[in-house]
Amino acid sequence: MIGAGKKRRIFFALLIGVCVLAVGAIYADLQIGYYTSANLGSVVQPAPPRLQTNGVYSVAAYPLYTPQLVPGVGRQDAAAYCNTCHTPSYITMQPPLPAATWKAEVDKMGKAFGAQIPTGAQARIIKYLETHYTPETRKH
Ligand code: HEC
Predict the structure, then answer these.
(1) Is 9 exposed, middle or buried (0-12, 13-18, 19+ CB in 10 A)?
(2) 86 CA → ligand 1 middle, Å
(3) pLDDT single digits (tens) 5-44
(4) Angle at 77 between CA 135 and CA 90, to 5 degrees
(5) What global pTM score does this model have?
(6) Is the Cβ atom of 3 under 6 angstroms away from ligand 1?
(7) What's the 124 CA to ligand 1 centre distance in angstroms?
(8) Is position 112 within any domain?
(9) Is 121 a residue whose pLDDT tops 70?
């Protein structure tokens, strides 16, 4: 025959055991991952860049190369006309050349390569090259 006090102790022991199991079950349930289809393919992407809705946009200044040509009469012509096919640095890249060679060089650009340089500008360029880029006159 089990006494009433012992019954109560067994009841409370069982109650505590059930509570521990219940708490454990709830905790285990929280740890489970749910892989439902709602999560599939939902990779988080950064916000796409906002596109301009009008045609207005800005760019920086075009990086024009400034030739390091010696200042002087004809420099403007050389910088403009000797810039069409190649950089005018072709002038400064050369060793100091005799005046006749510069004239031949400018003539060659027109005759051999088809440079379209007005006669006046051509004369000024030749004079400019002879004044600044010969062995006698070239400073740097
Ligand atoms: C129609 C195109 C054109 C123009 C304009 C032009 N050149 Fe040239 N130049 C060339 C070509 C092509 C070459 C040879 C290929 C290369 O080296 O790029 C050349 C080469 C040169 C060279 C290197 C040496 C040589 O004979 O190959 C010099 C110096 C030169 N040019 C000077 C000038 C000068 C000064 C002017 C302005 C009066 C000028 N060029 C204008 C096309 C041109």
Answers:
(1) exposed
(2) 7
(3) 899 999 999 999 999 999 988 887 777 666 666 656 666 7
(4) 50
(5) 0.64
(6) no
(7) 17
(8) yes
(9) yes
